Each structure stands twice: as C-alpha cells, then as structure tokens.
Amino acid sequence: MTPNDSFIESDNMAFMHPNFRRQGYHFVSILLLFLILPLWILCSATPLFGAQPSEHKKILLLASYHPSAPVGNLWRLGIRSILESEGHSNVDLDIEYLDVLRFRDARYAQLLTDLLRHKYATSQPDLVVAVYNTALDFMRTHGPELFPGVPVVFAGVEEKFIDIGKLGPNITGMISAPNYSETLDLALRLHPDTQHVAVVSGAGKIGRTWSMNAMQAFQPYGDRVDFIDLTGLPMPTILEKVANLPHRSLVMYITLLEDGAGNKFTAPQSAFQISRAANAPVYSFWDLMLGHGIVGGYLSSAEEKGKAIAALALRILNGEQPSDITPAKEGPLNAMFDWR
Questions:
Q1: What's the CA gap between 332 and 178, in Å, rounded?
Q2: What is the mean pLDDT of the chain?
Q3: What secondary structure, in 3-state letters, does 43-78 show?
C-alpha cells in the first residue's frame, strides 16, 4: 500500500466514523437552511412584513388644440421628462386633444363630454392638467360632472383670461405672462431705425385676444413707431401686406391658427409662410416658431412650462391641496435667436 493509498483509506474510514456522520448531517442541515430560508422569505414577504405595491397615479393632460398642433406634444414631453428623470414610474400620463378651437358649438362640447365620460368611467385621473384657457374653461364647465373632486392644474393661461378668486378650491396653476413689450423693445434695440411695426395674428378668439393684449402692451411705444394691425385678415391678404411693408419695418407675429377666411393652420405653418413673404424681420413670442423663419425674441417654451407644471402636479399628488397653492406667474423668459 502506498502512502497515498493510506491517505485515501484513512479519509474513507474517517467519513464512516459515527461522529463524522453526525457532524456531516448538521452541516447539510445548516446548508439547506441557508438555501431555503431566503426563498421562503421572498415568497412570504407580503404577509410577513405587510408590504404593499406602490400606488399608481394618473395625470390627464387636456390640450386645447387638434392633435396635429405640435404644441400639445411639447407640453407632454416637458411633463414626461420630469416624471422620468425623478423616478416617478408610478405616475401615468394620458393626453386628450379637445380640438375646441375649431369646434366651439354646444353640440360638440356635449359629444366630447360623453366621450370622456365613457373613456374614463372606470379609470378616472387623479389630476387634470388643462393647457390654455379653452381647456380650463372646458374643465370649469364640465369637470365637476366628468371628474368630481379631481384637482385641476391650469397652464399657459394669461391672467386676463381668469378670475383667480372664482377658480374654486380644487383649481390652481401657473399664470402665463408673454413678454410682448420686452420682445418689441429687444427688436427695436436691434433695429434702432424702425418706424413701422406690423402686428400679425389670427381671426379666432385666441388670436384676437392675444393681439388685443399685445397692442395694449405696445401702447407706450406709440409715439416712437407706427403700428400696422393685420389681425384677422385672410392669409393671402396678410402675405401681400407683409411683402410690401414700408421701409424700416418690423413684423411681430403673435399666432395665426385661423385666418379671416376660415382656413386653419398650425402656428409654425403660418409663421413660415409669413416669414418667407415678409420684406422685414419677423419676431415672435414662442419658441415653437424658432426655425420657421422668425429672427427670435423673448420666447416662451411649452416644454419648459410642462416641466414646471409637472413639479406642481407632483406636489398635489403627494398630498398638498390646490387651495393652499396660490397661482403664480411663470419665471422670466430668455432671449432666443435663430443664428441663420
């Protein structure tokens, strides 16, 4: 027998010893315990520790426009970016395009109400974001019937469109403050010899109201420049007039979604046509028009506003009451330009 054989035989005999077998049984039992216990804990964690899955919340974004209007998607992107960047995977975001700027009759409003009631009968939102004053008006009229008790956050609404004291305890939001005068002042500093300013806006309620607000903001400049009001005209007439403006002119494009002949446009579409036809620089107030022919301005960003609205919405979903949050004005805007 070789030394190695002796070692093997000795090992085998030790293994057969009763004390070793008892120790081996203890070792195997402990090993099985460590293997099985984690699986048992995992399977029985809910009854053992009382843990519950995180509660899901739903935000419903009501956009005033048609789905083809790119601004609604920018609001959605802004809200979604905050939900994703801050890890709020338990908050879902739905969007509905009301298209109430094109269809304003009572029959359409009733059909729209019936549709939303049917769609959300079994899955009501925990919070509604109403983008622009037409969506806010819709929620104030039909919201109590559609989504009773659901808080509403408005966005993109100018102060002149709302009476904060009459909003009710369930509504708050952020007040939009377009920099009409700041943008005009900027343009006049860049073009100090300007003598004429053409103001272009649409024929619809939004276009005319925004044009009125802009013209009021422009009043202090009345002794310096001559204003040419092109609000509510048919598009061919507008294009002809901006193509033949007097020397030393500027164009202030507000928004044109519907012209005086009833033709419909997206804001970038009409901005592009007007900028291409104009014989003078065109300025605007919304970054949505950047890249569509305008020079620039103090531009409001729907996507950035969406981020601010998402932060406000999360405060309410986390327990704050809308009545405790006073609607505040948006922060200052940045000057932006198309370098081309």
A1: 9
A2: 83
A3: HCHHHHHCCCCCCCEEEEEEECCCCCCHHHHHHHHH
